[in-house]
Amino acid sequence: MALLEIENLVVEFQTASGPFRAVDGVSLKVHEGEVLAIVGESGSGKSVSMLAAMGLLPWTAKVTADKLAFNGRDLLKMPASDRRKIVGKDIAMIFQEPIASLNPCFTVGFQIEEVLRIHMGLDRAARRKRAIELFEAVGIPDPAERLGHFPHQMSGGQCQRVMIAIALACNPKLLIADEPTTALDVTIQKQILDLLMKLQQEFRMGLIMITHNMGVVAETADRVIVQYKGRKIEEADVLSLFESPKSNYTRALLSALPENATGDRLPTISELFNEQQMLEGAAR
After folding, report:
1. H or E, element range at 273
2. What tens digit of pLDDT does each residue of 169-205 get?
């Protein structure tokens, strides 16, 4: 049984000019111990799909699906109180821009202990002990001292490690990493990716990696879903995708990689294929 199973997910937002469909019929599955990458340019609906699955979109968003299940339980039909018990505990998410995601008014220790209090019911001493263990696990030096620091007192890489620690606090079955290396320098990016993969293998978590970086996909994923304008264009195992992409859009993404450059400049995606060509043959 799949950890997360989505069939025909549609997400619409109301705008001044009428409804806007941000996600259009996306289907996917992810299993225990599997790394699924969702790749596509900004605005392709990657993050919105996962926020919809977790129930974290604003109430103005209209979310429908033929199936939206976690561990066999229907997320759309269960009471909101039951869904809140799952999100943050069994399903966790590492959000983009860690400094923006952490609350600047509270210490990082308070923010990780809050998760442990709400979902695990631990007392103060047990929460502190677990928080120190988690900071050690994600490679934060002097963890006991760092618990008392505010986000602005830590670097971008350290804040990202705090976000990972918060996400892992309750030993989730499924971890969603939304552009986990955005705004980090190359050295820190490598450290964060290595850390995520080490923890994923250690805890046998299902991992969904949302990214626009095909290099990250090649390094981390078992399977890949390619999205464009809210639609799933292609799905394949990572080797097949790189060696023999089926869709024009995937070929355009790969052609825009620096290592595939054949001239003096990289082509843009729109120079390679027009929009209709990229949508033709989209996987459903």
Report:
1. none
2. 998 999 999 988 776 778 888 888 888 899 899 888 9
Phi, psi of 174 (to 5 degrees): -130, 130
Domains of the chain by residue range: 32-58+75-247
Token pair recorded at residue 18: 């009428």
Q: C-alpha dihedral over 24, 28, 34, 36, to 10 degrees?
A: -20
Backbone angles phi and psi of 102, in degrees to 5: -80, 145
List pLDDT tens digits, range 217-232: 998 999 999 999 999 9
CB 193 within 8 A of CB 166: no
Residue 92: beta bridge partners?
175
* Contact assessment for residue 53 and residue 4, using Cβ atoms and an 8 Å cutoff: yes
Please give the model's pTM, rounded to 2 decimal places: 0.89
Beta-strand (E) ranges in the chain?
4-15, 18-30, 35-39, 62-64, 67-70, 73-74, 91-94, 174-178, 206-211, 223-228, 231-237
Beta-bridge mates of residue 62 = 12
Q: What is the dihedral of CA 258, 222, 271, 278, to 10 degrees?
A: 180
Spatial distance between the Cα atoms of 133 and 139, rounded to a whole number of angstroms: 10
Copy the structure tokens of residue 193.
């990716």
CATH fold of 32-58+75-247, please? Answer: Rossmann fold (3.40.50)
Q: Would you state the pLDDT for residue 111?
A: 95
**How far is the first Cα of the chain from the last one, in angstroms, to the nearest whole number?**
21
Q: Is the pLDDT of residue 279 over 80?
A: no
What single-letter DSSP state applies at residue 173? Answer: S
More confidently predicted of 70 and 214:
70
Q: Report DSSP state, residue 32.
A: T
Instruction: Name 216's Cβ contacts closer than 8 Å, sequence gap at least 6.
Output: 37, 181, 193, 209
pLDDT band at 271, cuts 50/70/90? low
